[in-house]
Design a protein that fits this description.
By secondary structure, the protein is of the alpha+beta class. It has 7 helices and 17 strands. α3 packs parallel to α4. The two termini are 21 Å apart.
Length: 326
């Protein structure tokens, strides 16, 4: 092992950055595909913090994080994960509070909850002003986070609307299928300071409803088109195999007049998105399916090194880890 591999800051000085995406299932411990209780004498946040720290990622996207929820010990999981990752630059985003998501067989409420956003130092008003979002530190919620050891120039957040139809899903700890309504989602983008200049990272967790998740991915593509490249997209996309890359590389849709459905001043959409890690991550005890992805534009497909999906002891997903020369 070289000094740069042992020391993430040495790795950054060598021009390599380690990225990871991980659906953490609210930090729930798992064994052979089944949820298990947190060991006696172990704090509710400890399995999550250990798992995150073990990845030694410079940039980490997390999905299915809890904020002050009873089921996860009322822990602020984004803050705990950022401390475990030694990542001083981070944001947590949630599109719905606890209790806003419908239960099985129950239609969602017609109102749209606000996008909540906060980070390590802001007050609620400052975090909300950053993206036009509302923030309530004391209200339980469920969302995503983007953590970075590298300085961040700019943050951006967006709410993604839920699908209007339910879907039968397999749920950890339950037998058979459960009819589940979709939830509002959030996307986070950050412009980071790399050794070779700025680049953009996008973190997201897309809908489980087929077709709707494709629509959300195209929405995120357009939303981030004006941010500096290279661009790296990290997340649980609920799309398998090569489909996300194919979606990202599709031309913009045309209207009946033959013109692209984009404003005249919109930046061009890149057509060189690459799938940098073609490795199954689900289910964690025997990975067979590629739900979790690292995609990039402005980076060659063979640039990724040290691709890994290590077991962590939590979640029904494995993390996906890659290193890139940035």
């Amino acid at each position: 092992m070289t000094a740069s591999e042992a020391d993430p800051r040495g790795r950054a000085r060598a021009g390599r950055v380690r990225f990871a995406t991980f659906n953490v299932l609210h930090g729930r411990s798992m064994r052979d595909g089944r949820p298990v209780a947190v060991p006696a004498g172990c704090g509710p946040e400890e399995p999550l913090v250990r798992a995150v720290a073990s990845l030694d990622a410079d940039v980490l996207a997390l999905q299915e994080l809890d904020h002050l929820q009873e089921r996860s010990g009322r822990v602020d999981q984004a803050r705990a994960a950022a401390a475990g990752a030694e990542a001083p630059y981070w944001r947590y985003a949630s599109a719905f509070p606890a209790g806003a998501a419908p239960t099985a067989g129950q239609a969602p409420e017609p109102h749209e909850p606000p996008l909540w956003l906060y980070g390590p130092h802001e007050t609620g008003s400052e975090a909300g002003a950053e993206a036009g979002a509302g923030v309530s530190d004391g209200v339980p919620s469920h969302g995503i986070a983007l953590l970075s050891r590298l300085p961040v120039r700019h943050w951006r957040a967006r709410r993604l609307a839920p699908a209007p139809v339910p879907m039968p899903l397999r749920t950890p700890g339950r037998r058979g299928l459960t009819v589940s309504w979709d939830q509002p989602r959030a996307a986070l983008a950050a412009v980071l300071e790399g050794k070779r200049g700025p680049f953009t990272v996008v973190a997201l967790h897309l809908s489980f409803v087929p077709g709707w998740n494709v629509r959300q991915l195209l929405e995120v593509r357009a939303w981030t088109a004006d941010l500096p490249g290279p661009r790296i997209l990290l997340g649980d996309l609920n799309l398998t195999g090569a489909l996300p890359r194919a979606v990202l590389n599709t031309p913009a849709r045309k209207s009946r007049t033959g013109l692209r459905r984009t404003r005249s001043d919109s930046p061009p959409l890149p057509r060189d998105w690459q799938d940098l890690a073609r490795t199954p991550t689900y289910p964690a005890h025997r990975p067979l399916v590629r739900f979790d992805h690292v995609l990039a534009t402005g980076i060659p497909a063979d640039a990724a090194t040290h691709v890994d999906t290590p077991p962590t002891g939590i979640s029904d997903h494995r993390p996906l880890v890659v290193e890139l020369p940035l």
